[in-house]
Structure formats: C-alpha cells, structure tokens
C-alpha cells in the first residue's frame, strides 16, 4: 500500500503538497492527522469531500509498502503511528524544502531543495510529466505557496516559487479563495492565549537585536499556536519572537524571526525541532516546562549570527573638507565624488557636517562664496566602530541624518551613509544565497581556474608580479574582463592590473625586476609594461571616474579598489582577483558578479550608470549576444529610460561600439536587440521598420553564407539597413566615417536607379550592369529585393571573384590591335564571354578575339 503523508499540525503547504503528490502517485492514499492549523481546518470543513483524505488512525500501518513524505523528512513529526511501520520492506520518498536534520529519515529517493514552499517541487514535477490540473487544484496548490512564502515576502522565497505560481495562474488559480483562507482569524480561546502571551512577554536586547520571549501554561489543548506566534511577532515587531506554551503533556517552542541575523534552528534543534531559519517549532512530550523556558532564555545568543558593525560597512579613508572651503567648491566636490555630504574637519577634529541641502540654501541666497562653516551643522552624531548595523539604522531614522562619522579614540576613521547600509543589505542577500552558491559551485578562490585557463607563461608571470607586490607592500589585483572569462573558461589575453596606490611606481618596479619595456601615461595614472617575452600588461592606479554631464567622457583621479569596481558597467565586469602571495587567487566580488555569470544575467551596477555613459547599453547588448545572457528586468528598464541620451554621443563613440557589437558571432541577435531597446528610434527610425529591417538583415546574412564571398557582412551594412528602409540617408551619413562605408551608401542608392534587372538571363548579362559595383552593395540591395533571377546574380558574384584574365592590353597589341579606349570594351566583352563559359583558356580567348575583330 502506498500512502502520502505530511507533518502533524497540517498547514496549507503540507495539504497542497499531499494533493500534488497524489497527481504523481495516483494509486496512493492521502493520509492526514487530526491536527491542522485553523485555516486548513476551516478549508477542510468546506472541501474535505473533494479531497479523499484518510485519517492516520484508520490506516493499517503494518501493510504500508511505500511512504511518500511531503513537507517533512522526520518520521516522528508525521504521525504517532509510524512505529507500526515495517521498515525493512518500506520504500520511502521525500519531497521537502527544510534544512536537513539528524532526525531525517533514510529515504530511498529524496527531492530536498531550498525553495519557499514544498509544493513548488511537486508542481515542477507535474509540469515535467505534463499532467493536467484543475482550477481547484491550482487554487489549493497556490494556497500552499502563498502561505509558506508569506505572499512571496519571506527571504526563503525563490524564483522557482514565482514561476510555479505563474503556472497556477494559467491553470485558473482563484485569488479570492486564496485571500479568504490565508488571512487567519482568531477564535476566542486563541485570543485569550494571545493576551496572556502579550502580558507575559519579556524583551531582551542582544547585539543590537530585539528578542521577545513569552510563556504560557494551559490545562487543555488549543490549536493554532503557530498562528499565535505569527500574531505576537507582528504586534511586537521584534527581530525574533519565541513562545513557550505547555498544553496537557506537551511543551511547544515556536519561533518567528524578521532579521536575517537570526536563525531559530540552533535553539529549536535542542529539542529535535525544525523548520526554516526564520520560522520553526519543536514539540517536547512530558517535558519540564520551567526547565525548557529557562533553557531558551539562557541560550538566545546561539540564534544570532555575528553582528555587522560600523567597521565592516564604513567607507574609508573619509573625504573631508576644511571649514574655510567655499560653498561653491563644496558643491563641486559633492558632484565630483557623488556624495551628498562631507564632514568638516580642522586639525583632525570634526567641527560639523555639511550636506547638499545646506549648500542649496546658501546658493539660493547667492552665498556661493561663503565658507561652509557658516552653514554646516555643528550637532554632529558619531558612532564607534563596533556599533551594529541595527543600531546605526535606528540612529539614522531617529535623527533623520544621511551619514554618521565613525570615531575611534578621538580620530575620524570612517563614515557610514545610507548607501553603505544599502550595500550591506546587498551583501546580506549574497550571504543568504550560500546554499545556492554551493549548488552552483561558486568559488571564492580562483587559483586553480587561473592555472587551468591561462597560458602557463601568463600564470607564471602573475606569480612573479605577486612577489613584487609583496616587496612593494602594495595590494595588486587582476581586474576586468579577464576575471570574467577565467570563470567562464573563455580565452582572453587582455591583462589589466590595478594597484591600490601608485600604479606607475609599481610598473617601474616590474620593469626593474624583470626587464622589458615600459610606457607611462601620467595623465591617466597608468602604465603599459611589456616583459621580455612580449606579454603586454596594463597597470592602473585605482581610479574614480566622474562625469561633468551625461554622456561626457570621464575625468579620472585616484580612489580605492572598491570605488574602482563601482565605476564599471556591469556586475560581471566588476570583479577582481587578489594577486598578492598571501591571498593569491582570492576573488573580490562585491556585487555578486560570479552568481550573475552562473545565472546568465547582465546586471548594471547602479541606476545612473547609463545616464553617465549610454554606450554601456551597447556593451550590455554585446555581452548578451556573446555569452547568450539576458539583462535583468531592472537593467533593461534603466536602459530604456536612458536610451534617449544616445543622441548626444558623437558618431565616433557610437561607431566604435557598433564595430565591436555587430562583428560578434551573432550580429542578427544584436541587431534585433538594438530595436528592442529603441536604439534606432533615437535617430528618426520608426518602430514600423523593425520587421522589414530584421528580414533584410537576416536575408543579407544568408546571402553571404550561401555565396561565401565573405565571412559575414561588415558592421556598417547591418547598421545601414533601418535608415535605408526609411530612406533616411542624410541621417546615416554621419555614421559613415570610412571611404568604404561612404562608397557603400552611394552604390546602393545608385543600384536603385537600374531598371533592367529583369533582363538578366545569364551570368554575363550581370557584368554589363554590375561590373562597377562592389559585392557588398550588390548583396545589400539584393537582400531587399525578390528577383526571380537572384540565383544568376549570386552566381555572377561568385564567378566574378575568381574571374581569370586571359588577355591584357599587351596581348591585344601583340595581336595587331592599336591601343585606344576600345581596349576596355573588348576586355569587358571577353569577361562576359568567360562568365558565360564561352571562353575557358587563353587559346580560346585569342580565337574569340580574332573572330571579334
């Protein structure tokens, strides 16, 4: 006998998972305990007859041959009758999404993955098997996902849960029913217990976190304790809430947490409990209530992950200004560095803080010449480096300030801003994806990959550089596209090194240590060192780029590695590899670029990136095409918002990017993407031209492939197509920067004047019309037309490419002809005869000439 079962105190995810498993195991019986949470019990009051459920006390457990466990992996938590199972002949299959525990059953087959709801795993299996589900089933499954992910708000929620929900919507999921049953109402007995819990709660402040613990003892059992824990958590808004409730002969410990620094599992596992890091429970039969309560309160610390402090998140060194700096100069500096405020310091002492708002007030009154000390705030709130993130957030909210100096022993050592907190939240998301990181095999040290992917000579050279870095006392990093390509196992010989300090000085040291040649670029703070084997390495000082106005070229100055990475275009290009001996190969990845590589995602670093430099949009398309990646939704949205800035760029900057973009392996994909991101629309091209342009480009590529006249069309040939479709030749002329491209435009427009295309009957006829035109122009024009004699024209181009010259002017003279303009006419006629296969050798050419004359 097959049975499907889940945990006691059945919630919607458990119920939905059991019914979803029934779709996969149609001969199995769905078994449920007599304990359900309140809303599930209300749901079953209405729908039980539709579900075909059997109570666990009605099963002959000794005859069970196969057990399918869903949303639970511990036998002790599914029924009080599992000790009756004949485990020697029992096959067990588990579908679960909770972290593994020591009490988990030894299963024959297991599907245990960290998704937000267990039913998601079963929905995916239903989709793989192409099984149909009804609208009612879709709604029940949806209740499982909706309630177990907190309406997709819990940190455990994954993209897979959202995709499963989307599938359920397509299958008729009823949101009205989901809303009705996901909002739990309390019975009077529960409300009374909640009141007692609220009155009994005790608050603990540990490491900047607020932990609430409450206890209650009752003589009779009341269902829905998990709901009460959730309600108490909402009321207190604490970082973690724990309730310890004794009912009859059992003590229940139930927890809820809102802070990612809290994991309830260490404390719940003390009594063989389980669940998720931020929602779980334990049940102790015949336990000592007072002892359990005391144990919980004394061990709260084990739930907490290490605090993130000001020292971890602060920016350093701190950019400061003196009290005599003018309002105008302070404003310039804020724009230059992208800051919204500066500490005002004199002789190492913080005198105040000046913000952009202060400057705006002063400028409004025409006081740009005044010193900042006249307008700065002198009530400075500061913190020490061990202040926790939670305390900092509270301080920023309560004091309504955007930045807080970090002071240690009277010295300003850093500053924490709202941006730092946002970045730290970004990093928390990275830490929360550790399980995903493990599954995707992400690395934090790439030494092995470097040795495998780089040529041996390059790898050895980097090892030599690490020795020089140690001697120089400088932090040195491999940076840029080569880091990305090492991870992707793609070839890349473009070696860029960043030095935290003076890159030119370090380049000189390499030159001294290993010889070779060095070229210095003082204004850019860079140098190019070529070693004795001819390997060229660009060495850069960590630098900060700032833009005087959108779409301008950047100005450059020194900065830290973090700032250097932040100035880059996409997360996949904002990684570095530490080259110093002590941490050689360590990956520096502050923006989760490695994860984006694994998930084939192009993600921009910050919201103003495209505003500063719109060509980054074109680079994004290039990476999409090259690696078969896709921009994430936010990046694409920002690209569409900033695409209008493309008009402000010079033709040289646009063509430079287009050359790289449209010479990649799949130019058609890039060409189509330019339309999707509305690039061509910025130059007067209408959306209605998209389909015709795509067809034109596709056929053009096909003609090149068929005829093998070249590997593929030149980048400009693709670029020209939308302008040609709308006859906007004047607009495209500004991008024709070479003689070849100018000639192409003129030839294509001239080909339009030819009226005798239909008269071409054989290959030689083409020569009379097309001899003076390039292959590129003919193929461009042909790709737009639908000539019946297209094959003949293509054959002409093929034969023309290898057209033998049997006779020259000297041969004509030798045959007794007098030189003149008629020579070119004769030789042209001979070409036609050769193209028509009338002449195949020099001897035949001479015979042909004699007949002609």
Taking pLDDT < 50 over at least 5 consecutive residues as the criterion, the unreliable ranges are 543-559
The number of strands is 27
In terms of structural class, how would the helical and strand content be classed?
alpha/beta
Radius of gyration: 37 Å
**Kindly state the mean pLDDT as a whole number?**
88
Helix content: 40-55%
Spatial order of strands in the largest sheet: 19-20-21-18-17-24-25
Q: What is the count of helical runs?
A: 37
Largest sheet: 7 strands, mixed
Shape field: globular
Classify the beta-strand content into a percent band: 15-25%
The CA-CA distance between the termini, in Å, is: 102 Å
Structural notes for this entry:
The chain is α/β, with parallel strands linked by helices and 853 residues long. 44% of the residues lie in helices and 16% in strands. It has 37 helices and 27 strands. It has a seven-stranded mixed beta sheet with strand order 19-20-21-18-17-24-25. Helix 7 (188-200) packs across helix 8 (225-236), helix 32 (763-770) crosses helix 34 (790-801) and helix 32 (763-770) packs antiparallel against helix 36 (822-835).
């Amino acid at each position: 006998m097959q049975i499907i079962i889940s945990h006691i105190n059945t919630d919607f995810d458990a119920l939905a998972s059991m019914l979803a498993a029934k779709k996969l195991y149609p001969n199995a019986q769905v078994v449920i305990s007599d304990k359900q949470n309140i809303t599930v019990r209300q749901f079953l009051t209405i729908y039980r007859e539709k579900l075909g459920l059997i109570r666990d006390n009605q099963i002959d457990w000794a005859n069970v041959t196969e057990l399918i466990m869903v949303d639970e992996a511990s036998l002790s938590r599914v029924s009080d009758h599992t000790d009756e199972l004949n485990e020697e002949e029992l096959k067990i299959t588990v579908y679960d999404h909770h972290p593994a525990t020591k009490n988990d059953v030894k299963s024959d087959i297991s599907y245990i993955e960290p998704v937000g709801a267990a039913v998601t795993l079963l929905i995916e299996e239903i989709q793989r098997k192409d099984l149909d589900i009804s609208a009612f089933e879709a709604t029940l499954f949806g209740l499982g996902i909706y309630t177990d992910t907190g309406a997709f708000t819990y940190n455990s929620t994954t993209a897979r849960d959202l995709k499963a929900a989307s599938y359920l919507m397509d299958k008729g999921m009823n949101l009205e029913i989901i809303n009705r049953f996901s909002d739990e109402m309390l019975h009077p007995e529960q409300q009374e217990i909640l009141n007692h819990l609220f009155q009994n709660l005790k608050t603990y402040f540990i490491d900047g976190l607020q932990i609430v613990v409450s206890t209650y003892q009752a003589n009779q059992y009341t269902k829905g304790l998990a709901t009460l824990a959730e309600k108490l958590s909402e009321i207190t808004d604490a970082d973690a809430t724990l309730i310890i409730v004794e009912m009859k002969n059992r003590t229940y410990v139930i927890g809820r947490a809102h802070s990612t620094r809290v994991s309830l599992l260490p404390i719940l596992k003390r009594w063989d409990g389980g669940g998720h890091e931020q929602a779980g429970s334990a049940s102790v039969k015949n336990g000592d209530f007072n002892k359990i309560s005391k144990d919980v309160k004394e061990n709260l610390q084990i739930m907490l992950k290490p605090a993130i402090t000001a020292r971890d998140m602060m920016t350093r060194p701190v950019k400061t200004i003196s009290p005599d700096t003018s309002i105008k100069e302070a404003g310039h500096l804020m724009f230059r560095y992208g800051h919204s405020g500066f500490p005002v310091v004199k002789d190492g002492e913080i005198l105040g803080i000046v913000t952009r708002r202060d400057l705006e007030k002063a400028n409004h009154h025409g006081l740009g010449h005044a010193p900042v000390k006249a307008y700065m705030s002198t009530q400075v709130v500061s913190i020490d480096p061990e202040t926790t993130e939670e305390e900092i957030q509270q301080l920023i909210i309560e004091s309504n300030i955007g930045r807080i100096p970090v002071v240690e022993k009277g010295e300003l050592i850093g500053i924490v801003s709202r941006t730092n907190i946002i970045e730290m939240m970004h990093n928390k998301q990275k830490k929360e994806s550790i399980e995903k990181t493990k599954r995707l095999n992400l690395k934090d040290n790439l030494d092995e990959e470097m040795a495998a992917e780089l040529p041996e000579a390059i790898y050895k050279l980097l090892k030599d550089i690490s020795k020089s870095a140690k001697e120089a006392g400088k932090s040195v990093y491999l940076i840029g596209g080569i880091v990305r390509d090492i991870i992707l196992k793609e070839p890349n010989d473009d070696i860029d090194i960043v030095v935290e300090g003076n890159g030119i000085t370090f380049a000189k040291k390499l030159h001294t240590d290993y010889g070779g040649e060095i070229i210095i670029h003082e204004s850019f703070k860079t140098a190019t060192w070529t070693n004795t084997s001819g390997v060229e390495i660009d060495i850069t000082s960590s630098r900060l780029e700032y833009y005087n106005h959108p779409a301008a070229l950047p100005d450059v100055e020194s900065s830290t590695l973090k700032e250097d990475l932040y100035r880059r275009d996409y997360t996949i290009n904002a990684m570095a590899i530490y080259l110093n001996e002590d941490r050689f190969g360590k990956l520096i990845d502050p923006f989760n670029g490695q994860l984006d590589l694994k998930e084939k995602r192009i993600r921009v670093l910050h919201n103003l990136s495209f505003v500063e430099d719109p060509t980054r949009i074109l680079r994004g398309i290039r990476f999409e095409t090259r690696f078969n990646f896709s921009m994430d939704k936010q990046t694409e949205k920002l690209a569409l918002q900033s695409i209008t800035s493309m008009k402000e760029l010079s033709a040289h900057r646009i063509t430079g990017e287009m050359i790289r973009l449209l010479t990649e392996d799949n130019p058609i994909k890039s060409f189509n993407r330019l339309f999707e991101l509305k690039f061509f629309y910025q130059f007067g091209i209408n959306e209605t031209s998209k389909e015709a342009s795509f067809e034109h480009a596709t056929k053009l590529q096909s003609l090149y492939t068929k005829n093998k006249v070249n590997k593929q069309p030149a980048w400009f040939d693709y670029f020209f197509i939308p302008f040609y479709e709308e006859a906007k030749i004047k607009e495209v002329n500004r991008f024709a920067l070479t003689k070849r491209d100018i000639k192409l435009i003129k030839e294509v427009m001239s080909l339009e004047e030819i009226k005798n295309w239909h008269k071409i009957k054989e290959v030689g006829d083409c020569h009379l019309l097309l001899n003076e035109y390039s292959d590129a122009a003919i193929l461009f024009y042909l790709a737009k037309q639908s000539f019946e004699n297209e094959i003949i024209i293509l054959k002409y181009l093929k034969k023309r490419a290898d057209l033998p010259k049997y006779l020259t002017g000297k041969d004509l003279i030798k045959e007794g002809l007098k030189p003149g303009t008629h020579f070119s006419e004769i030789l042209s006629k001979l070409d036609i005869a050769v193209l028509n296969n009338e002449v195949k050798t020099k001897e035949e050419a001479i015979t042909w000439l004699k007949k002609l004359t």
